UniProtKB/TrEMBL annotation:
Ranges for domain Response regulatory: 33-155
InterPro entries cross-referenced by the UniProt entry: CheY-like_superfamily, Sig_transdc_resp-reg_receiver
Protein's UniProt name: Related to two-component response regulator
SMART domains: REC
Biological source species: Fusarium torulosum
Length: 156
């Protein structure tokens, strides 16, 4: 299997991504509205399969810093962000806080940011929404029906 190596900054550790993982993203992102953010290849592959089945165009970021940079470069391609909360480089909580600040400073329509969580506790959902600015949560791994419910409740 061939390898793709990316340097994520001068002081950042080198990340190796397999070709299989890099091929999960849609090749044409100009009209993408969704950003999938997770450092786990298996989670990205599962989410990609669901998004492909639904015919939704998306991009992939492997950590919060990449997500933030992608959002700043093209907020129109990140109308809904599915954000893992625990990742290396920059976690999803910090990335969400910085995205919300950027939206406010630039008077942008807020993106729908869905926290990908392991817990289904209402108190955790409330904390993520109130303290970090998440729009809602989605327990992972999720099924197509759970994502469809989020899409129906948070149209973009």
């Amino acid at each position: 299997m061939s390898q793709i190596e990316e340097q994520q900054g001068t002081n950042a550790p080198k990340t190796t991504l397999s070709t299989e993982a890099s091929e999960t993203a849609n090749p044409s992102v100009e009209d993408a509205k969704y950003l999938l953010v997770d450092d786990n290849k298996v989670n990205i592959k599962l989410m990609s399969n669901i998004f492909n089945k639904l015919g939704l165009k998306y991009q992939v970021a492997w950590n919060g810093e990449e997500a933030l940079n992608m959002y700043k470069a093209h907020p129109e391609r990140c109308k809904m962000i599915l954000m893992d909360t625990s990742m290396p480089v920059m976690d999803g909580l910090r990335a969400t806080t910085l995205i919300r600040s950027y939206e406010s400073e630039n008077e942008l329509q807020p993106a729908v940011i869905v926290a990908l969580v392991a817990s289904n506790l209402e108190s955790e959902k409330q904390r993520l929404v109130e303290k970090f600015g998440m729009s809602t949560t989605l327990r992972k791994p999720f099924k197509i029906e759970a994502l469809q419910e989020v899409l129906d409740n948070w149209p973009v």
